Automatic annotation (TrEMBL):
The lineage of its organism: Bacteria, Pseudomonadati, Pseudomonadota, Alphaproteobacteria, Caulobacterales. It comes from the Bacteria. InterPro entries: DUF1203. This is DUF1203 domain-containing protein.
Amino acid sequence: MTFRITPLPLSSFQSWLALDDAALAERGARRMFAQTPNSAPCRVSLIDAEPGEGLILLNHAHVTAATSPFRATGPIFVRENAVEAAPAVGVLPALLQIRLLSLRAYDRDWMMTDAEVVEGAAAATWLDERLADPLIQTIHIHAARRGCYLAAASRPASD
């Protein structure tokens, strides 16, 4: 068993990237610039913005199932020059490897069935083990310290 990490799709954010600062503020978002290395993880490209690089900070709904008590939204960064990541099966992007992660496993009804906090370098083993359980549909990966959504993990599609 193995996993595939899925970024958020660039198409969901292209209209945000075209907005000026005033229009972003009207929608509760902000244009920001990364201040330090590894401080602004882009959820589309799955890489950290370089210091000085422009980003949009906005709220994103990552669990949207109306019937789940685990519905959730939170702040995310999208780099202004983001290119959608396509990690290979079984590959944990560096952005995830260097962080303390909160891993949250969900079943088909978006009920949380398991959760753990792990150092990023150890996340691959946990993902593999949990996705071996046929009841688990997806795993959301969050930054443990701030709680922000980073990416999702699921079983790779069958060839």
